[in-house]
Predict the structure.
Amino acid sequence: MSARAQRVADQIQREIAALIQLEVNDPRIGMVSVTAVEVSRDLSYAKIYVTVLNSLSDSGAVNSSTLSTPGQLDKLEIDENLKALNGATGYLRSLLAKRLTLRSVPKLRFYYDGSVERGRHLSELIDHALAADRDLHS
């Protein structure tokens, strides 16, 4: 990515994060964090990667009463947040146009960033392996 495209991506990331928090009033959108933005070479498209922060997988009571497997609830919540964000792209793009000094504002598309989830899973695997190694050598 060129230096200009990177600057535009960084600015879009900051502005979109603020707009989602302050301007979007959709109840389907929970606490989302904008983790990255990739802008196309011609600045006509922007891929916005988000992480959903309010997943309910830690609450066993809610999970057992609604679904059989806790992971399903996370997926449903993530899908609902992405559907709401992608539905609000026109509104977000018009607000973004007022804040950016670009001739044309990129078309927005939201994607889920699973890197936080993968990092947590890898950390659990490492902890499990260390505990197993400790038990073996004790």
Observations:
- The first strand starts at residue 32 and ends at 39.
- The domain at 3-137 is CATH 3.30.300.20 (GMP Synthetase; Chain A, domain 3).
- The two ends are 51 Å apart (CA to CA).
- Strands lie at 32-39, 45-52, 107-112.
